[in-house]
């Protein structure tokens, strides 16, 4: 495309999403003092538009409205226009999304909100078409109507915005009431299980009809529920629900069978037609969840899927300096000659394309069978395309196929008279050729922003897979990413995390002129990652850094009056509300994960005030946990960990010794939501021995690597065989 003549001030930003709007005729400002001052000085309303770079409807609104010269003129004349990347500023996004959800009953992106010059919201919505449509008011109409209201009824508007803010403050407050204690875990776990069980799709797995999201938080809850109720019918059902869901997702079109990794969500009940963007936070959580599924079941399918996700991330979302990029877009150009991007163009196939790529006759199969025939049958490909028009409102996928595994290897093999092992090799060759053909297509846009929180989730994915699958290269990749965080997203002077950094010119890692400080979720997901990485690598420096960050998190975000942590720190006058996220969704809520973090931190440090804080968080969310725990499955899971007390599994031994490694392999291979692992290597001057004096009293028995299982710093009798240790970990 030719270089546009006009650019606005977003051209100076680093965020890929803001840069996508740098050539609009709209006079965009980034969120900041310059825009706020202009609004006050000129007494103008603010139009705030929030989105992210891989959001399909954000692209649509940008194309239809923000590139439109006339609409741009209306915006510039009447409003100060601000653009926010929600992935850079989740705090700003959350404040105004709370308003949009409260006033319109729905939310989503792009989010469009109108604010008074002092940043109070009074009108909002999501996507608006440029002109009026049958069921939707147009963006131009809304802009002109709001500008008119400001001229005619300014005082009423200001008064109304103040009332709205007060109502939001009341609605969004989460705090402990009186002398509340943490809710009883048996009831919370039981209710959460019942609520998930009744929303479960028996045929296809998952927890709704459509759209269907991967929601690893639900699956992790079910694994923990099973671990605590292994012998009951409910426990068995919990495990079956989780494993069936993971299998159906792995076979579905939400899983990219050619390019690996998972798309964002499925638009239908069958996990078939996805929204095609791929997000880092999904890959990180799903790699960990599939690794746990393998730990529990021993089924190689789950190990294969975990490895498939990590291959995709290593190849396509990794920066050479060690960090992980945020996302890949859903939309791309179908061919190098195309003028228009289409959703899913990079990932879908016409039947004749597949036939042309796989024409080889298959020896030993039914007469005349080609590799294309076998592939087309196994992956549900249809000559006229396999996407229902209902799931393709814009006709972007007409005549195309989203690959989905329709039958087992055994069934496909029987149909063509092949051995399953041979069929597996043939399908692998088919996938390899399609992958090579796909590499010739224009790639979707890559969001090369690197976020501390999402990098934390991905480090956990690599570390957990490294332990469960006994693959050292995954642990090394996790360590490389953690070193990247320490180098690029941590300020050793202040001891604070930064939110984001960017891939700049010549592949260098760059920081924005005024770096964005880390939010609660950055601390929580990075601390979780460092604990996971310590257990996988037994490198004590990660543990030491995790505990330092936990102290900093307490200082910046803890609410000493109402308990639990605020999502953002105090002292930012442009933030009207300090909120506490109360939902485990695509990502778990930070307060949910931090409960387990605090219990792990206490186990590694002996600081019991962290256990007390964990209980206070559960008390603050008590009402929600008892009534609708399905909205907080990760926190519901953490109530069980809190009430059952973590077991400290201490291995005394030489880290290089084969006997030590064997004991560690045993611990890594067992799924136990209640364990923390530590290595007592005999170095009494080391970090762990200084934190936990009781370690000095634990000895190696007969000079062999010895395991102790301790609870509240009181230990079991020593064991020296992995079999005995396994028995203690799986009661």
Q: What is the fold's blueprint, element by element?
A:
Layout: H1 16-19, E1 28-30, H2 33-42, E2 45-51, H3 56-66, H4 69-78, E3 79-85, H5 90-104, E4 111-115, E5 121-125, H6 139-152, H7 154-171, H8 185-199, H9 216-228, H10 233-251, E6 265-266, E7 274-275, E8 278-279, H11 280-297, H12 300-316, E9 327-328, E10 331-332, E11 342-343, H13 351-357, H14 371-378, H15 409-416, H16 420-438, E12 446-447, E13 449-451, H17 452-468, H18 472-488, E14 490-491, E15 496-497, E16 500-503, E17 509-510, H19 520-537, H20 540-557, H21 590-605, H22 609-620, H23 622-627, H24 633-644, E18 647-652, H25 658-669, E19 675-680, H26 687-691, E20 706-711, E21 714-715, H27 722-729
Parallel strand pairs: 1-3, 2-3, 18-19
Antiparallel strand pairs: 2-4, 4-5, 6-7, 8-9, 9-12, 10-11, 13-16, 14-15, 16-17, 18-20, 20-21
Describe the protein.
The chain is α+β, with helices and mostly antiparallel strands and 731 residues long. Among the domains are: 10-172, 3-Layer(aba) Sandwich (Glutaredoxin); 347-440, no CATH class; 648-729. 47% of the residues lie in helices and 10% in strands. The chain is built from 27 helices and 21 strands. Strand 4 and strand 5 (121-125) form a beta hairpin. It is globular and about 85 Å long. The mean pLDDT is 95.
Notable traits:
731 residues, Glutaredoxin, four-stranded mixed β-sheet, 10% strand
Helix run count: 27
CATH first level of one domain = Alpha Beta
Strand order of the largest sheet: 1-3-2-4-5
Shape: globular
CATH topology of one domain: Glutaredoxin
Overall residue-averaged pLDDT value: 95
Structural class: alpha+beta
Radius of gyration: 27 Å
Q: Oligomerization state of this entry?
A: single chain
Share of β-strand residues: 5-15%
Helix content: 40-55%
- Tell me the name of the CATH homologous superfamily of one domain: Glutaredoxin
Would you identify the CATH architecture of one domain?
Answer: 3-Layer(aba) Sandwich
Q: Distance between termini?
A: 64 Å
Number of strands: 21
Main sheet: strands, sense, barrel: 5 strands, mixed
Task: Give the low-pLDDT segments.
Answer: none
């Amino acid at each position: 495309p030719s270089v546009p003549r006009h650019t606005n001030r977003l051209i100076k930003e680093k965020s890929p999403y803001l840069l996508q709007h740098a050539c609009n005729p709209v006079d965009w400002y980034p969120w900041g003092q310059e825009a706020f001052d202009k609004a006050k000085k000129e007494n103008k309303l603010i139009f705030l538009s929030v989105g992210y770079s891989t959001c399909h409807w954000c692209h649509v609104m940008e194309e239809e409205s923000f590139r439109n010269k006339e609409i741009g003129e209306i915006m510039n004349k009447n409003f100060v226009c601000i653009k926010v990347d929600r992935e850079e500023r989740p705090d700003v996004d959350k404040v105004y999304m709370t308003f949009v959800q409260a006033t319109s009953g729905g939310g989503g992106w792009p989010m469009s909100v109108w604010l008074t010059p002092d940043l109070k919201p009074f009108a909002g919505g999501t996507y608006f078409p440029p002109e009026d449509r049958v069921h939707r008011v147009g963006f131009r109409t809304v802009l002109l109507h709001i500008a008119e209201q400001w001229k005619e009824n300014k005082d009423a508007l200001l008064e109304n915005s103040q009332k709205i803010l007060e109502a939001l403050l009341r609605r969004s407050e989460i705090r402990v009431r009186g002398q509340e204690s943490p809710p009883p875990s048996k009831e919370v776990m039981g209710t959460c299980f019942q609520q998930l069980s009744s929303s479960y799709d028996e045929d296809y797995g998952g927890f709704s009809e459509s759209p269907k999201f991967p929601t690893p938080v639900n699956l992790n809850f079910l694994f923990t529920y099973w671990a605590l109720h292994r012998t009951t019918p409910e426990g068995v059902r919990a495990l079956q629900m989780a494993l069936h869901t993971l299998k159906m997702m792995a076979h579905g079109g939400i899983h990219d069978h050619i390019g690996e990794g998972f798309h964002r969500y499925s638009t239908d009940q069958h996990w078939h037609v996805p929204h095609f963007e791929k997000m880092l936070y999904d890959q990180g959580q799903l790699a960990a969840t599939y690794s746990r599924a393998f730990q529990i079941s021993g089924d190689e399918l789950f190990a294969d899927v975990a490895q498939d996700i990590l291959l995709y991330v290593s190849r396509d979302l990794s920066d050479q300096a060690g960090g992980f990029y945020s996302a890949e877009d859903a939309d791309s150009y179908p061919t190098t000659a195309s003028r228009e991007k289409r959703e899913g163009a990079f990932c879908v196939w016409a039947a004749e394309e597949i036939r042309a790529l796989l024409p080889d006759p298959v020896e030993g199969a039914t007469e005349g069978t080609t590799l294309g025939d076998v592939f087309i049958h196994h992956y549900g490909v249809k000559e006229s395309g396999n996407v229902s028009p209902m799931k393709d409102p814009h006709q972007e996928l007409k005549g195309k196929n989203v690959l989905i595994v329709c039958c087992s290897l055994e069934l496909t093999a029987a149909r063509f008279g092949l051995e399953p092992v041979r069929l597996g090799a043939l399908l692998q060759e088919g996938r390899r050729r399609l992958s090579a053909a796909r590499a010739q297509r224009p790639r979707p846009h890559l969001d090369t922003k690197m976020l501390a929180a999402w990098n934390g989730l991905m480090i956990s994915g690599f570390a957990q897979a490294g332990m469960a699958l006994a693959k050292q290269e995954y642990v090394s990749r996790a360590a490389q990413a953690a070193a990247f965080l320490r180098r690029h997203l941590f300020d050793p002077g202040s001891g604070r995390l930064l939110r984001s950094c960017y891939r700049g010119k010549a592949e260098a890692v760059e920081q924005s002129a005024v770096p964005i400080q880390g939010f609660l979720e950055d601390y929580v997901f990075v601390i979780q990652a460092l604990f996971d990485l310590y257990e996988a690598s037994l490198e004590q420096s990660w543990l030491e850094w995790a505990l330092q960050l936990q102290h900093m998190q307490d200082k910046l975000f803890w609410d000493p009056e109402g308990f639990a942590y605020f999502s953002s720190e105090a002292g930012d006058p442009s933030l009207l509300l300090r909120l506490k996220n109360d939902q485990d969704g695509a990502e778990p809520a930070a307060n949910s994960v931090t409960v387990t973090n605090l219990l792990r931190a206490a186990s590694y440090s002996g600081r019991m005030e962290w256990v007390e804080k964990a209980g206070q968080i559960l008390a603050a969310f008590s009402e929600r946990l008892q009534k609708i725990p399905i909205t907080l499955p990760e926190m519901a899971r953490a109530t069980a960990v809190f009430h059952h007390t973590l077991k400290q599994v201490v291995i005394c031994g030489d880290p290089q010794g084969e006997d030590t490694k064997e004991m560690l392999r045993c611990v890594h291979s067992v799924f136990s939501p209640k364990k923390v692992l530590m290595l007592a290597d005999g170095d009494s001057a080391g970090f762990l021995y200084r934190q936990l004096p009781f370690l000095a009293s634990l000895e190696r028995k007969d000079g062999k690597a010895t395991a102790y299982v301790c609870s509240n710093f009181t230990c079991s009798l020593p064991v020296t065989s992995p079999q005995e240790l396994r028995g203690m970990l799986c009661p």
